[in-house]
Amino acid sequence: MSNSIPVTSPLLPPLEEFMPFLEEIWASKRLTNGGPFHEQLEAALAEHLGVEHVCLFSNGTLALVTALQALRVTGEVITTPYSFVATAHSLLWNSLKPVFVDIDPLTNNLDPKRIEEAITPATTAILPVHCYGIPCDVDAIQKIADTYGLKVIYDAAHAFGVQHNGTSVLNHGDLSVLSFHATKVFNTFEGGAIICHDRKTKQRIDYLKNFGFADEVTIMAPGINGKMNEIQAAFGMLQLRHIDAALQARKRLFDGYAEALADVPGITLLEQPAGVDWNYAYCPVFIEASRFGVSRDEMYNRYRARDVLVRRYFYPLITEFPMYRSLPSSDAAKLTHAHLISSRVLCLPIYPDLTDEQQDSIIDILLSARGA
To answer: What class of enzyme is it (predicted)?
Structure first.
């Protein structure tokens, strides 16, 4: 292949569609601080996603950090080792102690049975991740939270537009946090959002993301600068015009992979649970070397040699990084499923601009490696 193929790529509408937005921003001279496009995007996303309130941020990590601040979380927080490291970093930035528990090997999400076992008097919250956009067992997690008086903040970075039993998965828990990074299904170059369920909570979050300002002379809280600027917001408004087509393209590509790889020994694909309207954010395959004949890492190197930039999402586990590995909950013996999945996962390229010819080549590289 003459050009590198990334595992994912931003949806980029034609530049000429974006120019009127830029001209309007320049004419208004409002570049940030809750300008017109910021307000429009919050309202448009709330309607599109079927949620009450959207609080836009300049990136998803700041949104995670602020969500924990907004709920005044303290002490220990139960979370997953199988995620992007920002999930756990948001806890350390809030002086919170991560407590890692194992995942369900079918959904790759937190196993509710392991959550309950990890609760101590210091536990105040649960931070689950809807991994690859597959919803967590939200009913079981909420039951545990209600029983023990815990907050639930969902890292929903992968879950834009995902519905569970006919309603947005973002309506579960106390808060949900989205990422609008360029590699996500919906993006604003960089960006993110907190989804909340009442006006009072939104007001607190809006204070926190703007240094705590209530007005020119009043500071309500020790806030941070997490605001989304007008160019990001305008790009988000443009993205919304194309999101349905983008999701259809992703589904077609995922179905193509699933059909081609369904009966390959040693290859397992992610299954879409019943009742879930999914967004096809990622296409992870899980490679069992003893049956396939080639290990995940060997397959990774074969793709990289052909300029196909597959990714091992998520390897290493968060618990293997220096700032986390000394925690008692990072003991590999307690995280057997997470370690096994992390050693097998390989995310194949999936994004709207991926051509049929490119996808065929990606599939051929995998199939030709069997038994090698």
So the answer is: transferase
Buried b (16+ CB within 10 A) or exposed e, 72-111: ebeebbbbbbbbbebbbbbbebbebebbbbbbbeebbbbb
Distance from chain centroid for Cα 82: 12
Tokens read off for 270:
């992610």
Cβ count near 224 (within 10 Å): 18
Q: CA–CA separation, 32 vs 233, rounded Å?
A: 9
Report the percentage of the chain scoring pLDDT > 70: 99
The pTM assigned to this predicted structure is: 0.97
pLDDT in tens, 271-292: 888 999 999 999 999 999 999 9
Coil, helix or strand at residue 283: strand
Q: Report H helices in 110-182.
A: 112-118, 138-148
Inform me whether the pLDDT recorded for 2 exceeds 60.
Answer: no
| DSSP state letters, 66-95 | HHHHHTT--SEEEE-SSS-THHHHHHHTTT
Q: Which two tokens stand for residue 321?
A: 């990084």
Query: Which one, of 244, 209, 186, lies nearest residue 11 by Cα?
Result: 186
State yes or no: pLDDT of 180 exceeds 60. yes
Q: Exposed, middle or buried: residue 237 (CB in 10 Å: 0-12, 13-18, 19+)? A: middle
Asked if domains 15-238 and 243-368 share a fold, the reply is no
Give me the pLDDT at residue 371, please.
Answer: 60
Q: Kindly list the domain boundaries of the chain, sorted by start residue.
A: 15-238, 243-368
- Say what the pLDDT of residue 10 is: 84
CATH of 243-368, one of 3.20.20.80, 3.90.1150.10, 3.30.1300.30, 3.40.50.150: 3.90.1150.10
DSSP code of 210? Answer: B
∠149-170-315 over CA atoms, to 5°?
Answer: 90
Instruction: Supply 32's token pair.
Output: 């940030």
pLDDT of 112 higher than 90: yes
